[in-house]
Amino acid sequence: MDQNKIPQATAKRLPLYYRFLNNLQHQGKTRVSSKELSEAVKVDSATIRRDFSYFGALGKKGYGYNVEYLLGFFRKTLDQDETTEVALIGVGNLGTAFLHYNFTKNNNTKIVMAFDANPQRIGDEIGGVPIYHIDELEEKMNGNVRVGILTVPSKEAQGITTRLVEHGVEGILNFTPARITVPSHIRVHHIDLAVELQALVYFLKHYPLSKSE
Ligand code: ATP
Asked: What are phi and psi of 125, to 5 degrees?
């Protein structure tokens, strides 16, 4: 199946589906209904049915979806067999939390190294991840690191991004408020936690949800 045919919105939901189905399999479940899935992942069942139809998983009435088949598909599509190496830059409060968080548990990504400018952090390991000085970035990144996580102060974001891109990083997860400029073939996902929180509070105030029965 041509993965380019999957709409981006669907592709974004795949890891969510994958994680839930993986848990189901561990519990010994062999099938799941779109309603069950919908309640667990909080995506409406019509969307789930449409998403699944893109990869030929057609649920049967009264049976639902075959967990094994779906997992097989997701594993292939999400390259679960191949781990993507990630470098984290900035081992402050947020960066430290990410290093402690075990991304590999249900996932195909692994933070393999971290960098900081603070000499007190250098040489430590957090969650099994070694911390190097930022001056060693070029030396330590061996061309296998494809993704960078930015948890540095805003003013450092652009300079570090440029260095990462020059050394083979293709994707940046930017947790700083800074807007960064990259060549057109580099993908940046921006997560500004303060903005997200503010947006949530705004929605609570102006678009209250009604309780369902
Ligand atoms: P956080 O924003 O994650 O809560 P913090 O408040 O502990 O972090 P910040 O000042 O935001 O600290 O810095 C985050 C981390 O980035 C710190 O550990 C700091 O030493 C590191 N840092 C600062 N400048 C650089 C740089 N040029 N390269 C790498 N790391 C840097």
From this structure: -130, 135
Taking the CA of residue 95 as reference, the ligand 1 atom at the shortest distance is: 3
Q: Does domain 3-77 have CATH number 1.10.600.10?
A: no
pLDDT, averaged across the chain:
88
CATH of 84-195, one of 3.40.50.2300, 3.40.50.720, 3.40.190.10, 3.40.30.10: 3.40.50.720
pTM for this prediction: 0.73
- Indicate whether 204 pLDDT > 50: yes
- Give SS3 for 203: helix
Atom index in ligand 1 nearest the CA of residue 153 equals 11
With a 6 Å cutoff on the Cβ, whether 117 touches ligand 1 is yes
- Euclidean distance between CA atoms 49 and 51, whole angstroms: 5
Closest atom, ligand 1, to C-alpha of 156 = 27
Chain segment 122-149, per-residue pLDDT in tens: 999 999 999 999 999 999 997 889 999 9
183 backbone φψ class: left, alpha, beta (φ>0; ψ -120 to 50)? beta
CB-ligand 1 contact for 148 (6 Å cutoff): no
